[in-house]
Amino acid sequence: MAETEAQIELRRRALDYHARSPAGKLSVIPSKPCDSQDDLSLAYTPGVAAPVREIAADLDKAYDYTGKGNLVAVVSNGTAVLGLGNVGPLAGKPVMEGKALLFKHFADIDAFDIEVQARDAEHLIDVVAAIAPGFGGINLEDIAAPICFQVEETLQTMLDIPVFHDDQHGTAVIVAAALQNALELQGKTLGRIKVAIVGAGAAGLAIARMLRALGVADVFLSDLHGVLHSGRNDLSAWHKPFAVAPQDWDLADMLRGADVVIGVSVRGAIPEAALPTLAPKPVIFALANPDPEVDPGVARRLRPDAIIATGRSDMPNQVNNVLGFPFLFRGALDCRSRQINQPMLLAAVDALAKLARESVPDAVQAAYERTAPQGLAFGAEYIIPKPLDPRLRQWVSGAVTVAARKSGVARR
After folding, report:
1. Cys-Cys link to 327, which of 100, 275, 301, 397 (CB 3.0-4.6 A)?
2. Residues identified as active-site
């Protein structure tokens, strides 16, 4: 498909942005002075020996004398980068740098991007485990399914710091928060809905797990090969618990009567012809970027009773992971948590959902005046907070820290 003039202009501006000197989006800035001989003697030899001895005697002292407690590794093998697929670790580096930038901008967390030329899951696990001592947390990024499940689960058992695959859990947290509010507006409840998830990769499975944890019983998924059911012999161990659809179902059957449709796939994956068959007052989340699974304008025309969300910043109800991962890690790091567990994720869901119901500050209203000239207020076109809302850190990180302490995974 030929690029439009707007797409060509965006590509030009993006390339200029990344190439501007210094190239990339990150640099390292010292946090301590090093302007005199005395500074140098403290920063390096002989003074540095003092914290080395303290840490050697008690490894937890690393949180007191180094940057470990505010440092996250953004790790990728480049096998599932955005909507671009398996482009490799080096081509994925702009995304990982961008992730590190968001950590710093939104939550004041230092982050290093680490791109790994991994041979297989075991190799990637070995690499991450080997570098883990220097970090307070590991953010796994853009790793294809099903390897991503094995990598995360293994590292979580091996390491005593948070290991978090944002494509899974970050997406699930934001979707769940937005969905709770959308259902309230539509007069529906989690325990009495049918959910159809189009896309059964890392995000789709994590969303399904989250919704089950919240009490949704009827959750069905599909992938490129059809609806997940017990008769398929091509499903991984992570997919099989969700292969609950009748064996004769196709995509149209899965969508028919659905109260909620969540797309985490590619453009066109949700057929326009299926929209009239959805339940009354449906919720449609078409989250593929930059082109949603179904055109939001068409969805609005065919289903004026729907609440619609996308992954795009130029449309209402943007479901964006930046609402989650910086603040999840901020809360985890603040209490030196050993992991990011289910209670912490659920606390983030609850905090995000509640914050969207609060009055929106004038500064946030002004920041979004161009895309929301009518103003931001809880309703069909504002079901989730905006990324530039400064209250996110207090609300979400605070809730995550409390949940970590209550669930016994906090060091302090």
Report:
1. 397
2. 44, 99
